[in-house]
Amino acid sequence: MTQKKAILCVDDEKIVLDALKEQLTANFGYRYIYEVAENAQEAWEVIEDLSEEGVTLLLIVSDWLMPGIRGDEFLIQVHEKFPSISKIMLTGQADPKAMANAEQNANLKACLLKPWNEQELVQIIQSALE
Question: Which of 60, 63, 95, 122 has a CA positioned 20 to 30 A from the CA of residue 23?
Answer without folding.
Answer: 95
